[in-house]
Amino acid sequence: MTKISIAIDGPASSGKSTVAKILAKDFQYIYTDTGAMYRAVTYLAIKHQISFADEAGLVTLIKENPISFQQQVDGQHVFISGQDVTAEIRQPDVTKAVSEVSAHGKVREELVAIQQQIGENGGVVMDGRDIGTAVLPHAEVKIFLVASVSERAQRRYKENQEKGIPTDLETLTKEIQERDHYDSTREISPLKQAEDAVRIDTTGKSILEVVAMIKNVVSEKGYQL
Ligand code: CDP
Ligand code: CDP
């Protein structure tokens, strides 16, 4: 059976990782959360007190601290040099700084090379901001997920409450708007819909509705996975 690549891009909390994980499981594909990689580098910078503006210092961190993923019963875990940092990379201090770290061209070069290696043989569902435009420009299926800012902030609020991360809706709304702005206006690989991507507005839609819509796109393109 053909092993295709599925690229899922979109702004913060549009539902990318949730639907990408389900699709990967259903298709028995590899799931790759590229945002987790940028978060891992940001976490390392905080831990090693490297300035977010120090591009060369950040690249050294990536080279010296291999990032890996492992599928566990409760979902995908992220490791840096063997240490499980799944929870740490979602903390507010990382979220606040990640856009600045990910705007550096050389940081992107390092991580994109790893992402392209993961995706080289297809059979992958990869989510991020530049998958359809830069990482996997030849992906057979490209999806661009969007949702209203208020719904995205509500989703993140609920998620943080469940995880016990202290939070308030106003701050989350502001943080999401700022991050979207920063990610869409940076010079290198900004968050942008690929010309051949299918745009899906997930506002008011359940996770399973969105998954079904994407599966429809896949079959309309002639792929039986
Ligand atoms: O899950 P959430 O929407 O909060 O973000 P994420 O997917 O974990 O990504 C965190 C940050 O990493 C984004 O805000 C971008 O600054 C950066 N990122 C990127 O630049 N390119 C990607 N392919 C993925 C993430
Ligand atoms: O990866 P991204 O930042 O785009 O979003 P996510 O982490 O997949 O989704 C953020 C939150 O919204 C999660 O708690 C999802 O369960 C929830 N969600 C939802 O309520 N409805 C959807 N259609 C998609 C996601």
From TrEMBL:
PANTHER family: CYTIDYLATE KINASE, CYTIDYLATE KINASE/PANTOATE-BETA-ALANINE LIGASE. It holds the Pfam family Cytidylate_kin. This is Cytidylate kinase. Keywords: ATP-binding, Cytoplasm, Kinase, Nucleotide-binding, Transferase. Gene3D superfamilies: P-loop containing nucleotide triphosphate hydrolases. It is an enzyme of class 2 (transferase). GO terms for cellular component: cytosol. It is found in: Cytoplasm. The gene is cmk.
